[in-house]
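USER:
Try writing one entry.

ASSISTANT:
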Amino acid sequence: MKMKAELSQLFDRGIARALFTREFRLALINRYFHVFSALALTGGIAAALFSEDANATGFFHLQIALYFVSLFSLLAGVGSAQAEREEWQLLFTQPLPRPSYVIGKFVALTLIFAGVLLLLFLPPLLAGADLRMMAQLYLQTLLLAATFLALGLVAGYFAHDRAQALIIGVSAWLLLLFGVDLLALFAARWSGIQQLPDLWVVMLMLNPLDSFRIEALFALQQIPAEAANKTPLAAWWIAHAGAWFAGIAVVWSAMMMTLASLRLNRWEE
């Protein structure tokens, strides 16, 4: 019995290793990665050549992270989830828990993005950009990418086809990029909300894109420090902006992976 249990454990480990290898290979041929790799390299070279100082380089990378890294991460997640939809019935016959497919995809995609993002950050470093600033921006951008990879996986698993998945994913991206800010702007005009300014701050804090943007802008000294003293919550947020963004990125990623896992557990088609 002991030998049988050991063989079963080795078999399961072998399947898990094969699953991760498979997901990694599939991620490498994801066309969104190919497009983003070219974009990242072009952006990195442009930042190295045309940025006048360290703050300009950081601001350039901030814009790329907000508008391109988040979007291509989401699209890569959607593409990965939808790539093998017709094979789900066969894949789920393997002796592995279904959430392992979500975890495998997420880890593989995140590792590849970690490598691709070097194309964006290495050229400015070679041109003399500040190492500490670029390393901080790199880690924050990777956390942002992981968050939207997980969101893309959720959209891909919940949708019935690729077109629907893309619509759901891009709609969610637009809501987080523009919609939350517009809601906060309109809400700030109401007299009731004006009496509760921290409620407006909370709306921004819980949005990973706003959390990333505000933290990066303060780190790059693009927002005056006195702007953080409007409310106690805003002051606390700015004082712990880096830790807050890391925490909100991890929480969002965990929530999205949990939703994707629940979807796979309930899939019976």
Q: What stands out?
A: The CA atoms of residues 5 and 84 lie 31 Å apart. The two ends are 36 Å apart (CA to CA). Residues 54-82 form the longest helix (29 residues).
